């Protein structure tokens, strides 16, 4: 027979095993939570500045300390402690431990007063290009927002360059550069802004370079109402009719039959392509595509210009009959 003491021993042993198992599960769960939020905790680095509050410790209460190039801060009573690579919570704990020599129950808080150790460069077609310091976990959209957003002439892609120390960029387009020191990737602007692929909105890492190239342009000059350069945006090309529409149509004095496309070649030499706008506008000829950096030139008609000036002169002098005769 099994004695009462043996049953009790088996029960206690089982309870002990279950307790250990629960503790291990708890530790694993805690570690899982810790790893999931660790990316949101700001890690101090060289040139960051912290402000220390310590109750009843006048020597350091309200003092600021800058992390030096070796990663240390120096405070009265405390001396030097390693701060780079640690969160403010870790620094708080270290300060509290050292202050126990002077205060029974130290009450310490640490805040980051200046961020300098995690710079990100934002270049190109953004409204406020420059260097921005990360203050915690920041996504690509958040960093671009800090840079004032994209300009109207922004291109279709955003280029990201990341130092090898931070690992490859987690995007399908990522690749290593020739030196192997950097990872580069592209993000489609439209996809990012429309949140079609949430994975495009990556977490930005310190020293990342975010570059937004300008969009390709098509130029319309000459006898049109609004000459200038027009952004292709998502389009890789634009047709002649679209260009004329965007330039708000032809002037009365234009010579649409003599229009031409001026196109850059592989060398510095340009090619001129005759375009009969009259036939295209009337549907007698097919529309013609314009490529990036093409120039659509619509010349003036000398005869139409002379006639229009004569009409204007007649109207200004009050000689309507003369103007009418000229019109006829």
Features:
328 residues, alpha+beta, wza like fold, Outer membrane lipoprotein wza fold like, 6-stranded mixed sheet, 8 helices, 29% helix, disordered C terminus
Structure summarized in a few sentences:
By secondary structure, the protein is of the alpha+beta class. Helix content is 29%, strand content 26%. Strands 7-6-11-8-10-9 form a 6-stranded mixed sheet. Strands 13-12-18-15-16 form a 5-stranded mixed sheet, covered by helices on one side. It has a 3-stranded antiparallel sheet with strand order 2-1-5, covered by helices on one side.
Q: SSE layout and pairings?
A:
Layout: H1 4-37, E1 49-54, E2 64-66, E3 72-75, E4 79-82, H2 88-99, E5 108-114, E6 119-124, E7 130-133, H3 140-146, E8 157-163, E9 175-176, E10 182-188, H4 189-193, E11 209-212, E12 217-222, E13 228-231, E14 238-239, H5 240-246, E15 259-264, E16 270-275, H6 277-282, E17 289-290, E18 295-298, H7 302-317, H8 320-327
Parallel strand pairs: 6-11, 12-18
Antiparallel strand pairs: 1-2, 1-5, 3-4, 6-7, 8-10, 8-11, 9-10, 12-13, 14-17, 15-16, 15-18
Helix pairs in contact: 7-8
């Amino acid at each position: 027979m099994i004695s009462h003491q043996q049953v009790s021993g088996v029960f206690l042993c089982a309870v002990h095993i279950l307790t250990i198992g629960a503790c291990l599960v708890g530790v694993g769960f805690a570690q899982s939570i810790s790893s999931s939020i660790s990316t949101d905790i700001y890690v101090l680095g060289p040139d960051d500045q912290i402000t220390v509050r310590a109750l009843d410790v006048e020597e350091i209460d309200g003092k600021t300390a800058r992390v030096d190039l070796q990663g240390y801060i120096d405070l009265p009573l405390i001396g030097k402690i390693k701060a780079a690579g640690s969160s403010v919570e870790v620094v708080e704990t270290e300060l509290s431990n050292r202050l126990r020599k002077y205060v029974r129950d130290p009450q310490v808080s640490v805040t980051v007063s200046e961020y300098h150790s995690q710079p990100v460069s934002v270049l190109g077609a953004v409204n406020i290009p420059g260097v921005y310091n990360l203050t915690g976990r920041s996504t690509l959209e958040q960093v671009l927002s800090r840079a004032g957003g994209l300009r109207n002439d922004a291109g279709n892609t955003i280029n990201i360059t990341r130092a090898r120390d931070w690992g490859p960029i987690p995007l399908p387009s990522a690749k290593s550069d020739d030196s192997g020191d950097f990872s580069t990737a592209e993000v489609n602007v439209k996809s990012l802004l429309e949140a079609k692929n949430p994975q495009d909105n990556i977490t930005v890492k310190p020293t990342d370079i975010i570059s937004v190239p300008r969009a390709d342009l098509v130029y319309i000059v000459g006898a049109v109402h609004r000459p200038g350069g027009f952004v292709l945006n998502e389009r890789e090309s634009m047709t002649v009719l679209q260009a004329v529409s965007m330039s708000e149509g032809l002037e009365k004095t234009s010579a649409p039959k003599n229009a031409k496309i001026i196109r850059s070649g592989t060398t510095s030499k340009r090619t001129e392509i005759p375009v009969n706008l009259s036939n295209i506008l009337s549907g007698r000829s097919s529309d013609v595509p314009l490529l990036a950096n093409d120039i659509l030139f619509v010349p003036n008609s000398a005869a139409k210009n002379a006639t229009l000036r004569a009409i204007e002169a007649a109207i200004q002098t009050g000689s309507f009959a003369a103007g009418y005769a000229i019109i006829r």
